UniProtKB/TrEMBL annotation:
This is Type 1 glutamine amidotransferase. GO terms for cellular component: cytosol. The keyword Transferase applies. It comes from Sphingomonas glacialis. One of its GO terms (molecular function) is transferase activity.
Amino acid sequence: MPHFLIADSETLTEREARRAQAGKSSGETYSVTLKQLSPDCAIDIVQPADDDARTFLPDDITRYDAVFLTGSPLHVYDDTPEVRRQLAFMRAVFASGTPSFGSCAGLQIAVTAAGGRVRKMPERMEAGISRRIVATKAGQGHPMLAGRADTWDAPAIHGDEVEELPEGARLLATNPVTRVQAVEIRHDRGVFWGVQYHPELALGEIAVALQRQADDLVTAGLAESRDDVDTRADQIAALHRKPDERALRWLLGVDGEFADEDRRRREIVNFLAELSALDRRRKDSAVPSPAA
């Protein structure tokens, strides 16, 4: 029975706000997704950002088969106690050799912990749908993207992005809005796979996220008013309820890569399938990298 550790990147206030609007914290959303994909798994959820968070040492993490880092409103470039605790946790994950996966802020935490840089996106955001994602040469044939179409859309909402990848990272996917959409990082003894988008989220949760950040979207020029944001959120929520509805897919300009739950989760499914190859706890040599 696999044993997973989920690091909820949200603060207590953020978790409570998300539960009030979406019904679950980011960590609880990941837990539901993993239970659906791996019904026999055991899951622990921790909150590294909290003041009273347990300090994890590498040996504490080796008892888990994988670690997952969630998204959150966290800004990794802010030098705050919450950020420092998250980075210390991720460095322990890398040092443990336990395979790890993260989305959105989870990706940004791993990048920063390994020596890269994250920044606020200059005069833009990516919200609702990350469009026209394509694999790089290094990403073509990489197991994380196995089964992906030549071009795909994914759920996303973020105003920060990776500015510089750390040493030991390979850019696997990109799009016209945000250069780093998918990446593999080999740092210390660990292997991390991450995406800037949200394969773990149901479309209804993306709709709620848009409504929660409506003012930010208007300020960024993605919508003229909160009513416009509500309209787009309603369309995405409708697709959540009727993912096969051709009219809704046409209205949103998406296909099954975005609308179908099993295809939307492809990166997580592939990560779970590759855990034994990525596990470096009992082997010091790196697993062979796919051809660049």
